[in-house]
Amino acid sequence: MTETKLLPTSSAFVETSKTRHSEVFHAYRHSEATTAVPSGLATLDARAISAWFGDHKVLDRVSLTMEAGKITALIGPSGCGKSTFLRILNRMHEMIPSASLAGEVLLDGHDIYDQGRRITDARRDVGMVFQKPNPFPAMSIYDNVVAGLKLSGQRASKGDRDVIVETSLTKAGLWKEVRDRLRQPGGGLSGGQQQRLCIARSIAIRPRVLLMDEPCSALDPTSTRVIEETMLELAHEVTIVIVTHNMQQAQRVSENCAFFLAAQGQPGGIVEHGKTEAMFGNPVDSRTADYVHGRFG
Ligand SMILES: Nc1ncnc2c1ncn2[C@@H]1O[C@H](COP(=O)(O)OP(=O)(O)OP(=O)(O)O)[C@@H](O)[C@H]1O
């Protein structure tokens, strides 16, 4: 069966999204900072995803359902396409000039690649936290949190922004540490705090899915533990997908797990997926068993 490649559409990235977020601020106002009511948990469904860089095919027809309100871990050796798959889930892959893809990514049944859908909407609905904390270093902690609102064209009053900053920092587990220095630069925080600031920035725009690409790989064990606790709390209100090389982390935080693998010279795919407990305790495929028990990769 032939696959229809979607052409790179990076020029569409500059399109602006008009504000339609009064309901977001309303939701913030009417929810306790630490006990927000879930606002429509979303399932993300990737169907037959293939990906290329130029002519080099790096993913072959990968399908995976990432359940609403759960943490799904993507594991597998280096180079098997986990990060590429993650970037496809929020339309970042197409920003790379040589990149193309085939397949569908359904957010609650609606394809984020539909021609009628704006790329900025996909990015707002599906946020991303990267391996290396990337706050705007000279910008204040406060402005870092609201930066996503501005970038996605959402307007908010000073009062709205104050609420969003406190709520987002609280959810990211950082409020108590920074509430007295909100006007100081984000770059002055420790690595772990910077990563939590990036999480706060991502959740400030109320994404329905949060993608995390090895979010703790640059952090010490204590900061890692704090981020993991933050993830577990956030999972009540946002669907989370995390790429991790840390098998203990996958077991600590995720409910579901997918094992990616690429044979020599072949595109990557999913060997096995399911409940994390089963994947680690009683994997079906011997390659999964070998990987989760550290026999390769
Ligand atoms: N920008 C790019 N241009 C060309 N090839 C790329 C690019 N990014 C990734 N690749 C290739 O795509 C394949 C999958 O890479 P990807 O980073 O998705 O794997 P990964 O499983 O996330 O690896 P790691 O665990 O090391 O981050 C690799 O062969 C890689 O070299």
UniProtKB/TrEMBL annotation:
The keyword Translocase applies. It comes from the Bacteria. Pfam families: ABC_tran. Keywords: ATP-binding, Nucleotide-binding, Translocase, Transport. Transmembrane segments: none annotated. GO terms for molecular function: ATP binding; ATP hydrolysis activity; phosphate transmembrane transporter activity. InterPro entries: AAA+_ATPase, ABC_transporter-like_ATP-bd, ABC_transporter-like_CS, P-loop_NTPase, PstB-like. The keyword Transferase does not apply. GO terms for biological process: phosphate ion transmembrane transport. Residues 44-292 form the ABC transporter domain. One of its GO terms (cellular component) is membrane. This is Phosphate ABC transporter ATP-binding protein. It comes from Lacisediminihabitans profunda.
